[in-house]
Q: What sequence folds into this?
């Protein structure tokens, strides 16, 4: 089957939020700059972004939101620059996963959903980041047949949801029901209905455990449990009794094993090792996990942290996904602002971006 036919077949079978392993047009990142929280260690984090950008460029087009008046092309390998697209834009921070729009299939039609971003429950400034999706649209970023869905009444971050092709979406109750996100909805069922409708999903599956230390997001699912296929979930397992997160990960594992939706849908569960205690320069724990990986065309990019567990995590994922190249990307600097590889990126499925933009 040729690539275009394969994409059409996969899209035909999918519904709701599009799985991240589907063929992609591009990945989006936001380059760090002196007005972000990265300012004190800007050279270090820029080196991390160069490594991340290079890993993505080896597989597909990379779109970089850059500071106004700044180009980063010269920082990247010359032979890969033909895949680079730069968009100058004001931003508050670099966590594109949570303010970029989400791609959905609704009745077979492509749709981009723009939710409101409010700095993870008004913890951080977000005035510029909240405008990124609309600015991309105004610049002709999306294909002409993509429907724009304005859902700015709802706060929802991309890292808080993960989907398969059957319209099943994983999330955490602690994040979605956090009082500074959608205070106008006090009823959990009403909020679930609004989110399910906006994502055209058939099932919103809540988890209650996984409150790992150092997490600013109130429990984003992309640090805890992820789909790698329609019926397989990988999760952070309690492999280190000395870890500050050991008890919480025990509870997460028990919840997954006993969860009625997990059992009813027959999900296979595969554990990834706990990174263990990884403190920042002030001794506070950082929320480093291997679940924060990124699918790209033909590969899986996995965050690593310079610890012995890196090799085990990569080996598990290579065995699980033998048809993909599994590549470790050092995120020891990225995690210092309590985010990792998946948090810093947003993928766009095949056919969602304007051919003129990609040309």
A:
């Amino acid at each position: 089957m040729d690539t275009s036919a394969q994409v059409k077949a996969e899209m035909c079978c999918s519904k709701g939020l599009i799985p991240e392993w589907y063929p992609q047009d591009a990945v989006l990142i936001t380059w760090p700059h002196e007005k972000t929280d990265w300012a004190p260690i800007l050279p270090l984090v820029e080196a991390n972004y160069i490594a991340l950008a290079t890993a993505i460029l080896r597989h597909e087009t990379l779109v970089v939101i850059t500071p106004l008046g700044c180009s980063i092309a010269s920082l990247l390998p010359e032979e890969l620059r033909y895949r680079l697209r730069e968009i100058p834009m004001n931003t508050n921070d670099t966590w594109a996963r949570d303010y970029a729009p989400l791609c959905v299939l609704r009745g077979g039609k492509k749709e981009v959903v723009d939710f409101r971003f409010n700095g993870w429950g008004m913890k951080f400034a977000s005035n510029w980041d909240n405008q990124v999706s609309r600015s991309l649209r105004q610049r002709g970023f999306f294909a002409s047949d993509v429907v724009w869905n304005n859902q700015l009444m709802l706060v929802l971050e991309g890292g808080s949801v993960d989907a398969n092709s059957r319209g099943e979406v994983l999330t955490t109750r602690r994040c979605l029901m956090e009082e500074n996100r959608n205070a106008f909805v006090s009823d959990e069922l009403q909020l679930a209905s609004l989110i399910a409708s906006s994502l055209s999903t058939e099932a919103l599956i809540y988890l209650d455990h996984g409150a790992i230390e150092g997490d600013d997001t109130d429990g984003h699912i992309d640090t805890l449990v992820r789909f790698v296929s329609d019926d397989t979930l990988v999760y952070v397992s309690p492999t280190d009794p000395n870890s500050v997160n050991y008890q919480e990960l025990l509870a997460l594992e028990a919840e997954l094993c006993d969860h009625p939706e997990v059992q009813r849908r027959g999900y296979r569960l595969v554990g990834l090792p706990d990174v263990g205690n990884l403190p920042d320069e002030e001794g506070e724990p950082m929320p480093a996990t291997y679940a924060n990986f990124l699918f790209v065309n033909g590969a899986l990019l996995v965050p690593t942290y310079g610890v012995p567990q890196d090799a085990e995590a990569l080996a598990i994922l290579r065995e699980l996904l033998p048809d993909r190249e599994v590549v470790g990307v050092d995120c020891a600097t990225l995690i210092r602002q309590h985010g990792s590889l998946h948090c810093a990126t947003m993928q766009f499925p095949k056919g969602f971006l304007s051919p003129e933009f990609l040309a």
